[in-house]
Design brief:
alpha/beta; two-stranded parallel ribbon
C-alpha cells in the first residue's frame, strides 16, 4: 500500500494507534512510517522498510481508538486533536506525520513538499484520551 492508502485505512491505523496508547506496548516510543523508497540506514545497505519484520501478531485484538482523541509528540512537545483534524482532511494524520520515504516516492503518495509530511518521523509518540496540558496544539491542515 502507498502512504495515502494507509492514511485512508482507519482499521489499519487504529491498530497502530492502539499500540501507542498508555495500555499499548509502544506508548511514548519512536515511530516512523517507513516507506520502501527511503535511503539506507547508517552502516547498512537496507532501509527501515526492508529491515522490518512482517509480524501482524503485534497488532492488538482491540483496536477501537475512537475514544483516544489526541496524538501526542513528546519529542517536540506538540499534539493534534483527531476531532479537529477531521474538519480539515479525511486522511488520518499519523501515517503522514511520521512518514519517511526519501527521494523518488511512489506515484500516488502525498506530495512530500508539504511541511507536515514526515514532520514527526522518528519522534516519541503516544495516543491519549485527554487533551494534553502544557503542549502546543498543531492543526493538521494540508491545504
Amino acid at each position: 500500500m502507498k502512504l495515502l492508502d494507509h492514511a485512508r485505512s482507519a482499521t489499519f491505523v487504529s491498530a497502530i494507534e492502539m499500540l501507542f496508547t498508555p495500555e499499548g506496548g509502544f506508548n511514548k516510543n519512536r515511530l516512523v512510517w517507513a516507506g520502501d523508497y527511503a535511503g539506507p540506514e547508517p552502516d547498512t545497505d537496507l532501509n527501515l522498510h526492508k529491515m522490518c519484520i512482517d509480524d501482524t501478531e503485534l497488532f492488538p485484538e482491540e483496536s477501537d481508538t475512537s475514544y483516544y482523541g489526541f496524538i501526542v509528540n513528546h519529542t517536540k512537545g506538540q499534539f493534534i486533536s483527531k476531532e479537529r483534524c477531521e474538519k480539515y482532511t479525511k486522511l488520518h494524520p499519523l501515517p503522514l506525520l511520521t512518514a519517511e520515504g526519501g527521494i523518488g516516492w511512489a506515484e500516488g503518495d502525498y506530495p512530500r513538499a508539504h511541511k507536515l509530511i514526515g514532520y514527526w518521523a522518528r519522534d516519541e509518540i503516544s495516543v491519549v484520551k485527554q487533551r494534553p496540558e502544557g503542549l502546543v496544539e498543531i492543526v493538521f491542515d494540508l491545504a
